[in-house]
Specification:
About 35% of the residues lie in helices and about 20% in strands. The protein is of the alpha+beta class and about 500 residues long. It folds into three domains: about 50 residues, Roll (Structural Genomics Hypothetical 15.5 Kd Protein In mrcA-pckA Intergenic Region, Chain A), CATH 3.10.290; about 160 residues, Pseudouridine synthase (2-Layer Sandwich); about 220 residues, 3-Layer(aba) Sandwich (Rossmann fold), CATH 3.40.50.300. The C terminus is likely disordered. Bound molecules: 2'-deoxycytidine-5'-monophosphate (DC).
Length: about 500
């Protein structure tokens, strides 16, 4: 088919828009810029790009936004319904509604034949935002607003925190805006009911990046390429990168840079064990006294925050409200930390604190057992390594002029040995970890390499989501049960 038609069939843009893009020299086929809209291509076979980005990886996929009017059902076929939302879009293709909207509710629905996108938008794991406007008879009380925000209990389970604000007044009523990241059955109506209010009208105004805008009831429009891309990007929201490796392999520096680039939370788990060791030294607790150390670990009050002093620190570490950053890498702590962290009863109480780093959805976590014990299902596992000589050289530079390279090397090798041979959670190469050796590489080069690995992993994940989603419309997939994590501590 002609390239302009192919682009519109692929749901990238209208034919007119395609012709304009071709005229501007922004469309290429198999690496050559398209000179004329009469060029014929085979979607799915030819490699088509707009502004260098590939299109056509989903040949024949189409995407529409529809304003579902009140009273219309959102399922494809309903024996009792005279009309379903699918009938609003004239298409020779078999379209399916992405997610549901109650018969009594109205507003944005996405219709598509792309199961992968539907999976991303509807799967609770990806927490795609959905925004609603609810018309109430009166302004809700502050208490009701707070409860809606914090979460109310429905079916013995609290709803996730949501953003709730007051909108325009309409007559004696008022519109309330709610942004949810989950979609339980009739959730908005039931949440409002739980705090004593009833929605007179309920309009969905946004799904992820797709706005209802000025669509009128019963009208539809094609989604733009940017909107489809935005919906798929929700799949990249959850990302856990585990970086393990021996001391001074560059985990903290590289991990911090990576977290900045990925907009992720960063946690250096070594500081937890170091803070515990410092506390043990200060309290006179012996490094072999597992029982006493476990008690300290159970009540350990460590906080890591961005540095407040511009002295090159990567973060500030607080023990209670005391800033202990400068004490954590002292020779005393260095000498005892491996032994302290080798006790199983010391490690168990710190597991949850480490897993909380991933609460925000994106996290880079560094340590010794991150890919094996803490996040065995991490999206990317890196094992950062360098020769002992190189690592000792870096540590000695960190320490300053007085550090004896040979002493630093001996201490480091001892610590490596202890971390690798201990019985619980030893430093180990996870089966699916990628080894990155940092000898002779700059920090930036290492970060670039890991970024590349992360990007490749995201592409693969998207592909596997697409493959898994084949048939997602016809067979509703069972949601994965949140089971206990595997791996012992
Ligand atoms: O990464 P680091 O050098 O700050 O770690 C200090 C010690 O803490 C290390 O020798 C072993 C221990 N540790 C651990 O057992 N598990 C972790 N996840 C991180 C550190």
């Amino acid at each position: 088919m002609r390239i302009a038609k192919a682009l519109s069939t692929l749901g990238c843009c209208s034919r007119r828009e395609a012709e304009r893009l071709i005229g501007e020299g922004r469309v290429a086929v198999n690496g050559s810029t398209v000179a004329h809209p009469s060029l014929t291509v085979t979607p799915g076979v030819d490699d088509i790009t707009i502004n260098g980005s590939a299109v056509g990886s989903s040949p024949g996929r189409v995407y529409y936004a529809v304003y579902k009017p009140r009273g219309v059902v959102s399922t494809v076929r309903d024996r009792h319904a005279s009309q379903t939302v699918v009938s609003f879009v004239p298409s020779s293709l078999r379209l399916y509604p992405v997610g549901r909207l109650d018969k009594d509710s109205e507003g944005l629905m996405i219709l598509s034949n792309d199961g992968a996108m539907a999976n991303v938008v509807t799967h609770p794991r990806y927490e795609t935002e959905k925004e609603y406007l609810a018309l109430l008879d009166e302004i809700p009380s502050d208490d009701a607003m707070q409860r809606l925000r914090r979460g109310v209990v429905l079916d013995a389970q609290s709803t996730a925190p949501s953003s709730v604000s007051l909108g325009d007044q309409e007559g004696r009523g008022v519109w309330v805006r709610l942004v949810l990241r989950e979609g339980r059955k009739r959730e908005v109506r039931r949440m409002l009911g739980a705090v004593g209010y009833e929605a007179r009208r309920l309009v969905r105004t946004r799904i992820g990046p797709v706005q209802l805008g000025d669509l009128r009831p019963g009208n539809y429009r094609a989604l733009t390429l940017a909107e489809v891309d935005g919906l798929m990007q929700q799949a990249d929201r959850r990302l856990v990168v585990a970086i393990d490796g021996p001391s001074a392999a560059g985990k903290t520096t590289v991990g911090t840079q990576l977290a900045t680039r990925l907009h992720a939370t960063f946690l250096d788990t070594g500081v937890l064990y170091r803070a515990l060791t410092l506390l043990a030294i200060e309290r006179g607790v012996d490094e072999n006294d597992a029982e006493a150390l476990a008690q300290l670990a159970a009540t350990l009050d460590v906080h890591v925050r961005p540095p407040t002093v511009a002295d090159g620190r990567l973060s500030d570490v607080l023990l209670g409200d005391r800033d202990v950053t400068s004490l954590l890498r002292s020779p005393d702590v260095d000498a005892a930390v491996s032994r302290v962290s080798s006790h199983a009863v010391v490690r168990s109480p710190l597991v949850e604190a480490q897993r909380r780093a991933a609460d925000s959805g994106r996290a880079v976590v560094v340590g010794r057992d991150i890919g094996t014990v803490i996040f065995p299902d991490a999206d990317v596992k890196i094992y950062l390594d360098a020769s002992p000589a190189e690592r000792a050289r870096r540590r000695a530079i960190e320490r300053g002029n007085n550090a004896q390279l040979s002493e630093v090397l001996t201490a480091l090798e001892q610590r490596d040995q202890q971390d690798k041979t201990r019985e619980v959670a030893p430093l180990n190469l996870a089966r699916d970890a990628i080894v990155v050796r940092t000898d002779g590489l700059s920090i930036d080069q290492v970060t670039d390499r890991i970024m590349q690995i992360v990007e490749e992993a995201l592409v693969l994940r998207r592909r596997s989501t697409e493959q898994r989603a084949t048939g997602a419309f016809t067979q509703r997939r069972r949601e994965p049960q949140a089971g206990p994590r595997t791996g012992s501590v």
